[in-house]
Structure formats: C-alpha cells, structure tokens
Amino acid sequence: MRHHTDEGNRATNGKTPFCHGFTLLEVMIALSIISIVITAVFNLQAQTVVLNTNAQFDTKAPFLAQFEIAEIIADIPNHREDQAGDFGDEFPGYAWRSSVKDIESETIGSFAEKMKQINVSVTFNEEEFVYTLTTYRLVQE
C-alpha cells in the first residue's frame, strides 16, 4: 500500500517520484534537429527561386533575340552599327544590344562584301543574365 503526501506524486515510501516530461538535453537535441531541417528547407526554397529565374531567362532570351534579329534583317540597310533598347512592359527587366558588322574573309573572297554579321545580346536584371546570338546574312543591295 502506498502512502501519499500533500505534494502530489511523491510517495512516502522513500522512492523517487516519477517525472513526466523531457530533459533539457532532449529538448536541446530536438531544437537542433528542427533548426537544421528548417535551414535546409529555406536553402532549398532559395535554390528553387534561382533555378526558376534561370529557366525563365533561358526560355525567353532566345526567342527575344530571334525577334530582334528578325527586325534587324527586315530593315538591315537602315540599321546603325550599334543599337540598344528594351522590350517594353511586356518583358520588364529585359534589354537588348545589337551590332551589324561587315565581314572580312580571305576564304570567301569578294563574297564577303555582301555578308553582314549580326550580333544580338539579350540581358535581364541589369545584366545579371546575358544571352548572345550571332548570325550571318547575305545582303542584296
């Protein structure tokens, strides 16, 4: 038979009371594990955002460069050597630079006089990302 005192779970028979709960060490280990997991999840989220931005740029930039090259080719006689601009409100943060140069080549001889090198660079986020496309076109005068 057990004898109880006014202190609750503590018996008078000399045994130590049964404690409910966790020790400080167990709580510290649990908090450490939780903090490591949360840090890993936040790092994963940050990487996902960066990869998403990269994927969007890698998808849009080639199309925007092709669009700009098509505009240059349509009006190549009037195109100045170096130009720059942006893509407006439809593609905020995206900008372009272009250049049209004459070709000099001993390999193709006089045919090179009719060739133009067209370079278009598409940038995003103030040149954090850059995509450059170069093409050559025969220009009939």
Strand content: 15-25%
Q: Report strand order across the widest sheet.
A: 1-2-3-4
In the residues, how many domains can be counted? 1
Radius of gyration computed on alpha carbons: 35 Å
Low-pLDDT parts are none
Which range best describes the helical content: under 10%, 10-25%, 25-40%, 40-55%, 55-70% or over 70%? 25-40%
Distance between the termini: 114 Å
Strand segment tally: 4
CATH topology, which one? Pantoate--beta-alanine Ligase, Chain: A,domain 2
- Specify the structural class: alpha+beta
By CATH reckoning, the class would read Alpha Beta
Number of helices: 1
Shape: rod-shaped
Question: What composes the largest sheet?
Answer: 4 strands, antiparallel
- Which sequence of SSEs, written as H and E, runs from N to C? HEEEE
CATH 2nd-level architecture: 2-Layer Sandwich
Chain-averaged pLDDT = 85
What does this structure look like?
- It is a single chain.
- This protein has 141 residues and is α+β, with helices and mostly antiparallel strands.
- The chain has a single domain (24-138), classed as Pantoate--beta-alanine Ligase, Chain: A,domain 2.
- Helix content is 36%, strand content 24%.
- The chain is built from one helix and four strands, in the order αββββ.
- The protein has one helix at 24-74, and strands spanning 82-86, 94-102, 115-124, 129-138.
- The protein has a four-stranded antiparallel beta sheet.
- The chain is rod-shaped and about 105 Å long.
- 9% of the residues are buried.
